[in-house]
Design a protein that fits this description.
By secondary structure, the chain is α/β, with parallel strands linked by helices. It folds into two domains: about 5-205, Cation efflux protein transmembrane domain (Alpha-lytic protease prodomain-like, Up-down Bundle), CATH 1.20.1510.10; about 215-300, Alpha-Beta Plaits (2-Layer Sandwich). The chain has helices at about 5-35, 35-65, 80-105, 115-140, 145-175, 180-205, 215-225, 260-275; strands at about 230-240, 245-255, 280-290, 295-300. β1 and β2 (about 245-255) form a beta hairpin. α1 (about 5-35) runs antiparallel to α2 (about 35-65), α2 runs parallel beside α6 (about 180-205) and α3 runs antiparallel to α6.
């Protein structure tokens, strides 16, 4: 994978702010023309989209800053804080929605021009659908947790809007005003669930979880294919910090191998890993052959020696 260009990531973050403002305007208009509590809950949830898009933009800018004396490993973890903040804001928004749902449940009211409101909300949902697909696809491509989190949140927003549209349509068709408040309450419950999921995933990144098993196995395969005259690679460890993948391991070489040759082997392994994983920081500790653990191959931390 080619190395990430920070400017490209930032452009998507700016796009999220613009799209969020457009969708917010449309959903608020839908609420104003109908007076629907369910549509109001949908608009409140979109306020969170805009706020988190702004937070993601600044987090991405910070994460793109180069390493310095105080942050020798870079600033890439800043994106995880953005995703955690998004989860917190989502849960706060759900509490506001629950309050409005309770008011609507206690004092149900008839909807004004529901067909127009539904048409406006459907148009806003279409915009969200396209942009969420773009964010998730590009976020995974450039290894940006902030973009992926933003895209997933927009996707959950799409499901929410679909439920709201069905609920408001049922209110208009059946005349059961209380359904409007029920739909709003269901939206709040779903929002809480999605916010918790985002926070849990981001905390995993802050806690230096290893890269997914499939990628870990691929890293081991690449190291094994480029061992050259080396005897073994063991204690392979990985972690993901935003767009940056960190890989470190011990490389056992024959005692008679020169420092220059050992360095060349390390260079070959590093080049191969960077071609596969893109923005990568690799640390290799070269050891003499008496440090061999399992008699050859590549072994991750926790593998039997």
């Amino acid at each position: 994978m080619a190395a990430t260009r920070p400017g490209r990531v930032q452009s998507y973050a700016v796009g999220s702010i613009v799209v969020g403002l457009i969708v917010l305007g449309l959903k608020y208009l839908a609420f104003r023309v109908t007076g629907s509590v369910a549509l109001y809950s949908d608009a409140i949830e979109t306020v969170v989209n805009v706020a988190t898009a702004v937070a993601a933009f600044f987090a991405i800018r910070i994460s793109a800053m180069p390493a310095d004396a105080n942050h020798p490993y870079g600033h890439s973890k800043a994106e995880y804080f953005s995703a955690v903040l998004e989860g917190v804001l989502i849960i706060m928004a759900s509490l506001v929605i629950l309050r409005e749902a309770w008011i609507g449940f206690s004092h149900p009211r008839a909807l004004d021009t529901p067909i127009l409101g539904l048409a406006i909300t459907t148009g806003a949902s279409a915009v969200n659908a396209v942009w969420s697909f773009v964010l998730i696809r590009q976020g995974r491509k450039v290894r940006s947790p902030a973009l992926v989190a933003d895209g997933r949140h927009l996707l959950s927003d799409l499901y929410i809007s679909g439920g709201v549209i069905v609920g408001v349509a049922l209110v208009a068709l059946t005349g059961l005003r209380i359904l409007d408040a029920v739909v709003a309450a269901l939206v709040a419950v779903y929002v809480i669930w999605s916010g918790w999921g985002l926070m849990k995933e981001s905390v995993g990144g802050l806690m230096d979880e290893a890269i997914p098993d499939g990628e870990l196995k691929r890293a081991a395969q690449i190291i094994g294919a480029n061992l050259g005259q080396a005897l073994e690679a063991h204690d392979l460890r990985t972690r993901q910090a935003g767009r940056t993948t960190f890989i470190d391991f011990h490389l056992v070489v024959p005692g008679a191998l020169t420092v220059s040759t050992s360095h060349t082997i390390c260079d070959h392994i590093e080049d191969a890993l960077k071609r596969e994983f893109g923005e990568t920081v690799i640390s290799i500790h070269v050891e003499p052959e008496e440090k061999i653990k399992a008699g050859g191959g590549v072994y991750s931390m926790g593998d039997p020696a």
